[in-house]
Write a structure and sequence with these properties.
Elements (H helix, E strand, L loop, with lengths): L2 E3 L5 E3 L2 E3 L5 H14 L3 E3 L7 H13 L9 E6 L6 H15 L4 E6 L34 H13 L3 E7 L3 H10 L6 E5 L7 H9 L3 E5 L13 H4 L8 H10 L3 H11 L3 E2 L6 H8 L8 H8 L24
Parallel strand pairs: 3-4, 4-5, 5-6, 6-7, 7-8, 8-9, 9-10
Antiparallel strand pairs: 1-2
Helix pairs in contact: 1-2, 1-10, 2-3, 3-4, 8-9
The structure holds NADP nicotinamide-adenine-dinucleotide phosphate.
């Protein structure tokens, strides 16, 4: 399996399995089946609300001797309402307990926005809103420096082997790199042919930060939210450029999209609830698209972002990518 050597010194698989929107009822089986199919990287988060079940899938795979803990690369994320420095370690310990493991291979700041702490005993995972009714957004005063310093201490305590960020853009990365004692090993970003993020990729490369693409199939992951700009767009699987490359290379459209990303030097973490796609999504390294074909996919760029709070709920309070 293709791997990247991170700036932390650890190896990270280039292809992993994403856990967002994996239903609790099937999550343990899904994780178990993903490991059985050959996935070694699991991309979870507090916010996905399925870390207990994901851990059950891992435990079963380990119990049956399919893998050992050290064969897996388990990723999780710090939710926005735990950015205050003193809230980080307790929530990481809770998340580790949920998974049934004693360290994360990679732990990342999920979004560069700090929200007021919500007691996990009251609501967990808390989501974007402070209140149960989902109306109030309350910001915390924690800076990214405060949160990053707390993540650095996780490494010292052995709770995370590598640390990174997600949904950060160039300006904030430049700032983080000024004070980071441990540099971010990875940056996880939305990346697909409708959002190709060329400048951000260049910056990450220059700074030795490994980039992981999320939502590699673009609108496919967002149709269920009935977002107008996701449902009205031509699905990437049906775009003629992608379809004709699938025929040319005798691969599925999904594999063309993932190989475009992996050939750009990114890690990918596709999610699927469809067993037949598990294997297909894993086989996206070790064969090449010609440069002109890569460029024809890159040319589909529209600078179109799906994963931002304003697309999930009406808000005048939360404009992370403004
Ligand atoms: N850091 C962040 O803020 C952030 C945000 C979003 C996602 N992520 C991470 O990235 C992972 C992947 O992103 P994502 O879940 O948004 O979406 P994704 O993997 O791009 O797309 C998932 C969708 O594509 C379908 N699909 C999967 N494989 C396919 C194939 N080979 N051909 C056709 N359709 C296929 C799935 O359908 P079926 O399930 O029905 O097969 C599902 O509807 C997440 O699970 C999560 O771990 C991180």
């Amino acid at each position: 399996m293709a791997t990247f050597k991170l700036s932390s010194g650890y190896e990270m698989p280039q292809v992993g399995f994403g856990l967002w929107k994996v239903d609790n009822a099937v999550c343990a089986d899904t994780v178990y089946n993903a490991i059985k199919a050959g996935y070694r990287l699991l991309d979870g988060a507090s916010d996905y609300g399925n870390e207990v079940e994901a851990g059950e899938g891992v435990a079963r795979a380990i119990k049956e001797g399919i893998v050992k803990r050290e064969d897996l690369f388990i990723v999780s994320k710090l939710w926005n309402s735990f950015h205050d420095g003193d809230r980080v370690e307790p929530i990481v310990k809770r998340q580790l307990k949920d998974w049934g493991i004693d360290y994360f291979d990679l732990y990342v700041i999920h979004f560069p926005v700090a929200l007021e702490w919500v007691d996990p005993a009251v609501r967990y995972p808390p989501g974007w809103h402070y209140d149960d009714a989902g109306k109030e957004i309350r910001l915390s005063k924690a800076t990214i420096q405060e949160t990053w310093t707390a993540l650095e201490s996780l490494v010292g305590k052995g709770l995370a082997k590598s640390i990174g960020v997600s949904n950060f853009q160039a300006q904030l990365l430049y700032d983080l790199l000024r004070y980071a004692k441990i540099r971010p090993a990875t940056l996880q970003i939305e990346h697909h042919p409708y959002l190709v993020q060329a400048d951000l990729l260049r910056l990450a490369k220059n700074e030795g930060i490994t980039v992981t693409a999320y939502s590699s199939f673009g609108p496919a992951s967002f149709e269920e939210f009935k977002m107008a700009h996701a449902t009205e767009l031509q699905p990437l699987f049906e775009v003629p450029t992608v379809k004709s490359l699938a025929t040319k290379y005798n691969k599925s459209a999904g594999q063309i999209l993932l190989r475009w990303a992996t050939q750009r030097g990114l890690a990918v973490i596709p999610k699927t609830a469809t067993p037949s796609r598990l294997k297909e999504n894993l086989e996206v390294t070790g064969w090449d698209l010609e440069k002109a074909d890569l460029d024809s996919i890159t040319a589909l760029d529209r600078g179109l972002r799906f994963n931002q709070p304003a697309n999930y709920f009406p808000t005048e309070l939360m404009w992370i990518f403004g």
